[in-house]
Amino acid sequence: MSDSQTTHRQAWRRTDDLTPGATRIKLVEEALPLPLDPTSALVKVYAVALNYRDANIANGGNPWPVIPNVILGNDAAGEVIAIGDKVKTLQVGDRVAPIIDTEYVSGREIGRSWLAANEDGVMADHIVFEETKLVKLPDHLDWISAATIPCAGVTAWSAIKGAGPGKTVLIQGTGGVSMFALKLCRAAGARVILSSSSDEKLAQIQKRYPAPPILTVNYKNSDWHEEIMRLTGGAGADIVVENGGAPSLVQSMKCTRRGGIVSQVGYLGNQDPAQLSELIPTIIDRRVVLRGINAGSKYDMEDLCAALSASETKLDDIIDKVFPFSEAEEAVQYVWEGRQIGKVILRL
Ligand SMILES: NC(=O)c1ccc[n+]([C@@H]2O[C@H](COP(=O)([O-])OP(=O)(O)OC[C@H]3O[C@@H](n4cnc5c(N)ncnc54)[C@H](OP(=O)(O)O)[C@@H]3O)[C@@H](O)[C@H]2O)c1
User: Fold this and answer.
1) pLDDT tens, residue by residue, 265-281
2) Enoyl reductase (ER) domain spans which residues (predicted)?
């Protein structure tokens, strides 16, 4: 094993106490899982990007099982500071991020193991992963931007697959996945229609990206799908990045082009199945392909990193706020309240 003096780490673990007003996450000092396995690497973390999922897990709302007192977080960027004897693909000094589902490498695996759910996450100053679970990050991105890639980035990449010059993509909400999708669509030459519950946020984004213009819709207006049809000359969007789930899915399909794609990414609305009564006639009538998104594989993340590197796409403009690592609780609460446009980051 390469030399490293580090034997302990600090990590934010969930308290599992869901009583109102109780502390949801706690900073702990603990021994690292050392010595390293021959094929593992020790990574010093420089940035952790937060997702809605972190706030949901902290508040006990994750719809999938979570191990007791889990370390929160699935998006981290850091530097390899030690490697096991048999590591072949990484060197000390490499800039890396772990994949967020460590069972999902090629896309053909049948199991799943999500960080911060089936296994510990990455909200820690040091993390240890097997080399095959780590992806090298683009050189042109700083730690803060690079930390947004594994979850928000790969999810956006998977959700807009098929978007290209001249295609229209409806992106719902102004959170992390949505803002990453907006960047990728613009790099790909696709037209963006962005929806939000906040006219103020929409105006801010239109100002940030003046040309080509971003079309906008406020999804608080109950007939927002008709507005999308009007904006697309009656055709509908080629791809929809669906974030609401049950309350908005049918409406999303109604404003998707016949034969178009709805990428189901989020579940931010109240998931009452009664709201899906028109699902079958609508999916048939519009010939919609409903595509379930579960982030993406390691190969997807490598493809995204290659695309970002080739286009030298910067991500500074989708960073909403950077908190120090010591203020993780405040950062999680900020995301829980949906106050961000884009990404919220912990800097170490
Ligand atoms: N399937 C996957 O692989 C995957 C991966 C990552 C995230 N997700 C899910 O995708 C969703 C977004 O994640 P995120 O990390 O980007 O969240 P985020 O950064 O917390 O952003 C959430 C934003 O979505 C908008 N929103 C809230 N309720 C909505 C609704 N009912 N319909 C449409 N938009 C709504 C709000 O934007 P405005 O304030 O502008 O209205 C809110 O700020 C979450 O449900 C998350 O769990 C899924």
Assistant:
1) 999 888 899 999 999 99
2) 21-346
